[in-house]
Amino acid sequence: MSQMARLLALQGAACLVVLAGFILTGWPVQPIPFALLVGISAAIAAPWLHQGRWWRLIHLLFPLAVAVADTLAWPAWYWGIGLIALLLLYGGVVKSRVPLFLSNARTLALLSEHIPPHARFLDLGAGTGTVLAWLARHRPDVQSCGVETAWLPWLIGRLRLRSRPQASWLRRDLFSQPLAGYDVVYAYLSPVAMPALWDKINRELPPGALFVSNSFAVPDQPPLQRLEVGDWKGSELLLWRR
Predict the structure, then answer these.
(1) How sure is the predictor about 190, in pLDDT bands with cuts at 50, 70 and 90?
(2) Which of 53-67, 148-162, 181-195 has the lowest mean pLDDT?
(3) Which CATH class is domain 105-241?
(4) Are 192 and 211 in contact (CB under 8 A)?
(5) How far apart, in Å, are the Cα atoms of 122 and each of 1, 32, 76, 125, 175?
(6) Cα atoms in the Cβ-side hemisphere of radius 13 Å centred on 192
(7) Secondary structure (DSSP) of 112-135
(8) What interhelical angle do 105-112 and 130-138 show, nearest 10?
(9) For 40, 82, 126, 198, which has the most beta carbons within 10 A of its beta carbon?
(10) Lowest-pLDDT range, 65-69, 124-128, 237-241?
């Protein structure tokens, strides 16, 4: 069952449970309290069906967003624009199950310490080009490449990096990007993507090259190092050497 199907199934089950509670207690069903209870119930149950803490937040906010949207008397074309924007920003999430994560400056400073001079660096799932833009400013010796598939983040990254000749910016699925010739490969993806990415790393990454994952481990593959970032998210960099 896909992650989206699990989300809808869990939301539906939570709706039935909460509705039964309202009926048994005789409380009147009001949209916002009902949606809040559905969101809380689904968020509590989310770890049994999903990997990744963000699914709890999605389950909590989804019914509230629906309830609030139902109270707004906006023209239909508002919702059309919103849908198009979401598809441009997150259109690849349903297929790849990799949401948009942005690396912060503290993480990038720590990452930079493990990038050798004049290295060839690859960012898989590069979002809006944050990593490459930071490296272009602070590590101009590094030849970097970023790969992103979602249209809106890719366009933002292209604009950010248009005057950075040492940065190459590609719109491409990360699993179709060759890894040969790179000294460091960086990824900030999701737990779901890590097993397939690890298989790709083993097939394509040159011996001696470094693979760095932001926060997400590879099942049954202990990293060579774990580096705590020290930010509010509890981020860490996990390093493997080929």
Answers:
(1) confident
(2) 53-67
(3) alpha beta
(4) no
(5) 32, 45, 42, 10, 13
(6) 16
(7) HTTSPTT-EEEEES-TTSHHHHHH
(8) 60
(9) 126
(10) 65-69
